[in-house]
Amino acid sequence: MNRIISIIFATVFFLSANAQTTIYTNDMDYVLGDVKQAFIQDKITTQEQAQNLIKGLKNLGVNGIRVPIFAEGMDPNKPMFDYFYSLAVAEGFPIFANPAQSSGGQRIAIGILNGDLSSVKDDSEKTAVLINRIKDFAAEYSCKWINPFNEDGAPGGAWSASQMNLIYSSLKGQVNGAELIGPCAWGIPASTRVLEETTIADDITIAGTHNLGFNHENWDDFIAVAKAKNLPVWDSEVNHNDVYTTGSRLEVAVAAGVDGLVMYNIWNTIDLTTGAIGNSGKEHMAIYLKNMPALTPGSQIDGGDWVEKTSVVASAGSKINFAPMPESGTWSWSGPNDFTATTREISIDNIDANNTGEYVASYTSPEGDINHLVMTLALSCTNSPSLTSYYRIDKENWFTGTTLNLDEGSYLELGPQTSSTGSWIWSGPNGYTSGSRQITISDVNKTDEGVYTATFIDESGCGNSLEFDVSVNDTDVSFPDPDARYFIDCPEWNLRLGADGTNAFTTSTSATDYQVQWTVKESTNEGYYYIDCIGSVADPRIRTDRSDFADMTGRSSTGTQAKWSLTRNDDDTFFLSTTLDNTSMPRLQVNSAGEVRMVSTGLVDNTVKFTFTDIEKGRVGNESTVTAINETPVAVSELIFPGLLENSGAQFLPLNYVANVISYQLDIYTIQGQHIFTSNNMEIGWSPCQQRGLFLYRVSYSKSDGKLIRTSGKVYCNGF
Predict the structure, then answer these.
(1) Residue 373 and residue 370: Cα distance in Å, rounded?
(2) Are 372 and 294 in contact (CB under 8 A)?
(3) Which of 259, 372, 442, 669 has the fewest CB atoms found within 10 Å of its own CB?
(4) Do the beta carbons of residue 407 and residue 472 sit within 8 Å?
């Protein structure tokens, strides 16, 4: 296994060094796996966990690792960190180190890991402490990259510009051969200021910034400043959490064209008992890897028929063969009882309890693309554990059974039970895996259909399995869904609408990248919508320029130029028009040259007709009930909610009445995602009392005609 993975890394670095191709999207140079919190929180406590963490990082396909630098004497478990570091270096991972926690440089300077901060600004002694600690760390742990800061802010905050200049210039060439990265501030605006107001660009080789403020529209500014100084750009702390449905920080960084990524806390997606990757990690991989080869499981018992199952329960003494596909490429295996192999097909003869558990197969294609799957083996015994199937839908009653049919948007829980003690292993569609007894699939859609296999292995190695066959009905959905992403196509020319941060354009309908993914969200005028492109990072919002052009602008543009009506036609196409704006050409068109233009509403031919396709649920209008939006006001058929609560006595309730509502749920969350309120009665709302700030709401309700409506948004509370 180690030899094969070393070849992968050597290939990635060789190609990267020669500015050719890598296994990463956009041919990014580096994608680093972040393990800082694993050691800050002392979560790696055994050598086996450290070894499996390394296995997992290989399975993730990253080509570097980020580790923490602690203040002197503050490392919670230095022996385990040292062991992990030695494994990482032996496997060929380049190391990036920067301070633990937010305000990390400041914490090192005052000698703490957690707790309250004290001033370091223009303090020469504290400056020297930070410089010396970084030098000492580099002397003990050889790194490829080091940054003395982590979320330490812009000049004039915790540190002055002159301090920043001194710290970086003092470390350049003095950290055991490591290159310097900087500044890695909390948000893009602060990092841009550091590059503009200091001289650290003379000392660093990579310009890195976090984007924790979701300042998507500022990426172009930071990249322009960095490129002017001949510096590659990294998002230095990124994940796939799309808090505001404007695109996750990972998606937007990739769309912005960064040269590298540090995948924040991705160690959390690794099973520390096997090195297998969980579903969240696979979602990340699907974005930062160019390609994840499809793998097909294959298993055989005692020379019988080959079956495409990831779970095998067989009698003691049996011979088990595992042979996943494809045949081309290279394979490596790890499994119970220190099992390893470097062939595609493996055999386990005369199985007993020592052979039971998970076998992780890691695959590398001839092109260097990677993926892995997990095969499970358990013993069939006379006293094998008895399993009882349980499931429930939408948090209602639990039922027994293994054949389930449910609607799109449902909340599904599968929770089998046994009286025995042991471990659970799940497999399912799209590479789904889990090590929990009870699993949850929220907001179910058609891609979640398939067989979910739960295998239980007790402490003696005896096992049993259950298969849940899940089918999903197409459900009528309202349009537009503020949480959905759409492709917008002009069928007349078979072209798809996209945007590149500057201009709207058209491309082939086979394109699926972020530059052709759009959100449609209600504006401040009922029946009119803002239409934003996920991949048009600097200027995501399309609007009329009040001539015959459509242009792209920032999300701060909320006037009538950017408010679109969606008028449905009989053929499930839509006219898109800015009819509220004082312009003679409010209607969107794709002309015969494939150009995006604005024309008069008098034009009603096919060049001004567009379709919307939900990227998860399919084309709007196909087996869906669409909420039509006319160019003139229509009767309100959906609940409307306020965006502002003016005083502490106000309640967050629907502003209107809609007939025939038979079920209703309102949920309120803090902006950090903490759930704080639920109501199932339209007349019982949320009272924020003295709370002040921005909150999130989600509402779902169904009507007697069977229509299920979901909506979400933000409300600001004055708190007075």
Answers:
(1) 11
(2) no
(3) 442
(4) yes
